[in-house]
Amino acid sequence: MKTYDFAVLGGGSAGFNAARVAAALGQKVAVIDGAKKLGGLCILRGCMPSKTLLYTAEVLHLAQRGKKFGLSIPSARADMRAIHLRKKKLIAEFADHRVQALRSGPFDLIKANGHFIDSHTLKLNDGRLLRAKHFLIGTGSKVSVPLVPGVRETPSWTSDDVLDLDFIPKSVLVLGGGVVACELAQFLSRIGSRVTLIQRNSNILRDHSDDASAVVQKAFADEGIRVFAGTQIQAIRQERNGVAVTFLHDGKTIRQRANHLFNALGREPNTGGLNLTAAGVKTRPNGQILINRWQQTTMPHIYAAGDCSGPAEIVHLAIQQGELAARHSAKVKNLKPINYQLLLNVVFTDPQLATIGRLESELDAAGVAFLCASYPFNDHGKSILMEANYGYVKVIAAPRSGRILGAEIVGKDAGELIHCFSGPLAMQATVFDLLHAPWYHPTLAEIITYPLEELADKISAR
Predict the structure, then answer these.
(1) pLDDT at residue 45 above 90?
(2) What is the C-alpha separation between 456 and 402, in angstroms, rounded?
(3) Which of 256, 252, 64, 235 minimizes the C-alpha distance to 172?
(4) Per residue in 112-153, pLDDT tens?
């Protein structure tokens, strides 16, 4: 039986980076991952394949709108076989790079799955036992199948299936209104599918502000995506030529049919097979592992990071968490916990939706005073000439000092623009500091100066 200083379950973003840091600190490290394909969710079935397809769909969408730019483009349509092959090639390259890093890293790569038999021992599925002084659980998440009438009995796609399509579906019913549902619903619509999105909550993208979700929903409607929000599903049934979903909406019973059903009702922590009870590790009812600010579980020598522990399913956060756990287990001095008040989030719909820091709803709930100002994309020169008129930039600041507390951007390239606030927020900069910086004209980024100027005027007038 082999013994390690630090053993990692899962070779995704959290696990790989935790192992890399632990090994660099002189620890004897093992990475245990029994997946058929190594690489983790982000590379294989998440960020990278989805963004590859979303960008392709954006290029197609721009080509189809050529007349708005004075261009004559007789025909622009999706060749799904070619799109699929390009995506496979790119993802294979990304995955090969990660696999090479795992195989050549300064740690043992063990191709197996394991479960705890006590708090220091794993039993692998090949019968071997493995002991470690410290563990990092980074097993990620999996598609959840909630208790919705008929969803378990009706054949449906998951995000894995949509990301692997090599044909254009004629019509698709999308269940859910979260990030995955919205991003892939727009992708399907733009490649030529007739898409209907059915959402239980009153707004799509419910984790974001009502204003932000309304902008994205308006863009969806303008592109021909039918959105039913605030619904109660009554039945889902397979039919001869597809599926039908019956639901309540605005007091009426509505029935929608399509050739295919896409279950995008969310994901859940992938912790069910780990026998965490034997290790003394406690979870929430949905399987999410409870952690403290150092990523420690209820057993201090066992850490967790990434999607299996939360609080958000974001790659850069998983990396930070894994690295923090590795350093804490090695007793590195002067560590600081992750500052979740700098949380950065991006939704890759078109328009994109991006946020950073503390937003209005959180500040209101905490009773914290703030000022905010916003400016619309449809009144900004660069966005107007780009035909990128959806959305706005909103900046939130402390009322006396002007320190930046957060920002929300809905619009063209919001995921890029939000990074204008990353450094300033981490450095506790003020609106006045940002206005001292140069902003080139004409750029999309320049739009940020307008709410900054409004806030500076409000604060100076106090």
Answers:
(1) no
(2) 7
(3) 256
(4) 999 999 999 999 999 999 999 999 999 999 888 877 888 889
CA quadruple 318, 319, 320, 325: dihedral, nearest 10: 90
Which helix (H) or strand (E) is 282 found in, with range? none
* pTM assigned to the model: 0.94
Q: Which amino acid is at 82?
A: A
75, β-bridge pairs: none
Domains of the chain: 2-142+268-329 (3.50.50.60), 159-265 (3.50.50.60), 341-460 (3.30.390.30)
The whole-angstrom separation of Cα 46 and Cα 49 is 6
Residue showing tokens 């039986």: 1
286 DSSP assignment = T
Place of tokens 């050739």: 259
Distances (CA, A) of 179 to 43, 49, 175, 349: 17, 15, 12, 8
Rounded (to 5) percent helix, strand, coil in the chain: 35, 25, 35
Query: Among positive and negative, which fits the CA dihedral 124, 126, 127, 132?
Result: negative
The 10 Å Cβ neighbour count of residue 89 is 10
| CA dist., res. 183 & res. 202, Å (int) | 18
Measured in whole angstroms, the distance separating CA 363 from the mean position of its chain's CA atoms is: 23
Spatial separation of the C-alpha atoms in residues 184 and 25, rounded to whole Å: 41
Residue 352: beta bridge partners?
411
- Judge contact between 15 and 136, C-beta under 8 A: yes
Which burial class, exposed, middle or buried, applies to 78 when counting CB atoms under 10 A from its CB (0-12, 13-18, 19+)? Answer: middle
- Dihedral angle at the C-alpha atoms of 185, 190, 195, 197, nearest 10 degrees? 30
**Residue 87, token pair as written in the block:** 């995506």
Residue 355 corresponds to which tokens in the numbers above?
A: 């946020």
Question: Residue 362: which of 408, 323, 321 has the closest Cα?
Answer: 408
